[in-house]
Amino acid sequence: MEERTIVTIPDLYKCFLTQEPRSNKGYQAAKLESERWLAKSVTSVARYLDPTLRSNRTDQNMRLRS
User: Domain locations in the chain?
Assistant: First the structure.
């Protein structure tokens, strides 16, 4: 008769879903910095693409460059 080996497979789905997720200590600072950068970048692109969003100062700068 053959020898049998019993193998127990852990419930992998249960293990990681029941634990509280860990977050990076610098997450909040990096998030704030990246959101500021993104807002500034999007605003700059929007002003470049839509002349109605440009201020008088931006219009003057654009004329000087031309």
Answer: 26-65
pLDDT, tens only, 3-33: 899 998 877 666 666 778 788 999 999 999 9
- The answer to whether residues 11 and 22 touch, using CB atoms and an 8 Å cutoff, is no
CA angle 10, 14, 15 (to 5 degrees): 70
Q: Which amino acid is at 61?
A: N
The tokens describing 62, both together, are: 């654009």
Task: Give the Å distances, CA to CA, from 59 to 4, 7, 54, 55.
Answer: 82, 74, 7, 6
